[in-house]
Design brief:
By secondary structure, the protein is mainly β. Helix content is about 10%, strand content about 40%. The N and C termini lie far apart (about 50 Å). It holds the Pfam family Cys_knot.
C-alpha cells in the first residue's frame, strides 16, 4: 500500500498543485516624479507540489523536483507615471500573468533564491492605473 501511494504521488502529484494567476497591486514611483502609480495586475502565486530530497538515493533525479509557481504565458504592459519632468523617462513596464504552471524557476524574469525585501506602498500622492 505504501509503495503504491508513493508511486501515485510521484506520478500524479502535479494535479494537487494550486498555482494560478492572482490579483496583485504594484506601487511604482520615481524620485523625480510627483506621483506614485498603483498598478493592478496579475502574478503567478500558489502552492506547487515538491518532492523531498531526503530519498535522493532511492529515486531517479527527475522524481526529485523543487518546483515553484511560475509564468506559463505572460505579456508585458507599459504604464505612464504621472507628474514626471521632461528629462525623465516616465514609463514603467510590468508583467501580466495570463496562465501559470509549476516548474523550475527561470532566472530570466524571477528571483529564484529568495524573496526580495521591498516596500509595496507609496510615499508620494497615489494615482491608480487599471489596465
Amino acid at each position: 500500500f505504501f509503495v503504491m501511494s508513493l508511486l501515485c504521488g510521484l506520478i500524479f502529484g502535479q494535479t494537487e498543485s494550486l498555482c494560478a494567476p492572482s490579483e496583485y497591486t504594484i506601487h511604482v514611483e520615481k524620485r523625480e516624479c510627483a506621483y506614485c502609480l498603483a498598478i493592478n495586475t496579475t502574478i503567478c502565486a500558489g502552492f506547487c507540489m515538491t518532492r523531498d530530497s531526503n530519498g535522493k538515493k532511492l529515486f531517479l533525479r527527475s522524481a526529485l523536483s523543487q518546483n515553484v509557481c511560475t509564468y506559463k504565458e505572460m505579456l508585458y504592459r507599459t504604464a505612464l507615471i504621472p507628474g514626471c519632468p521632461h528629462h525623465t523617462i516616465p514609463y514603467y513596464s510590468y508583467p501580466v500573468a495570463l496562465s501559470c504552471k509549476c516548474g523550475k524557476c527561470n532566472t530570466d524574469y524571477s528571483d529564484c533564491v529568495r524573496e526580495r525585501v521591498r516596500t509595496n506602498y507609496c510615499t508620494k500622492p497615489q494615482k491608480l492605473c487599471n489596465l
